[in-house]
Amino acid sequence: MKHKRDILHRACILVAHPDDETLWAGGLIIMHPDWLWKIYTLCRASDPDRAPKFLKALSMLNAKGEMADLDDGPEQEPLSGSDIQNQILTWTGQDHYDLLISHGPQGEYTRHRRHEETSRAVQTLWKEGKIDAAELWLFAYQDNEGANLPQAAAGAPIQFELPDDVWQKKYRLITEVYGFTPDSWEARTTPRVEAYWHFNRENRHQIQKTKLEDRL
Ligand SMILES: [Zn+2]
Known about the structure:
By secondary structure, the chain is α/β, with parallel strands linked by helices. It has 7 helices and 9 strands.
């Protein structure tokens, strides 16, 4: 994986839940220990199970980060876009990032409202220049409406297969740090190919809230 490796240094991952960073981008993080990683999750700060696991994962990924505690109840009531944006801005402030990473416009599987809401907030803030980042990468996975486990979207412009040792480390984070059993959806999903939609100043107008896969 030669692309960008030598010029990107400051990276920020904004996700809905602890484990999303590992599941969807863990390989990228593990393969770039020299980058400065900041990882933020919008939910679960007060979850006595997930919160300490996230901190342990951060430590193993050599990343810094924080959690917020936005509602993540089973009803998945819609969150206010401005609440999400305001929370994100308390973290990103005036910082400059070379790379900003978040959920795909449709999330990664069918379907989780928090993933989609997070993606939308990050897209908006980045397009409006409220987050200063040279590039935006959005997770590019699809599950064909739940017919299969999420896997790299065929049309994604950035995708790479993880070397086995990298995938093993990512898998251990999911199973040993986050504690998902080998037969869990998470462990079975843990992608071997990571994939991202890629935006920069030139193509930022192509980001829409709808079916990105159909147009790229
Ligand atoms: Zn999630």
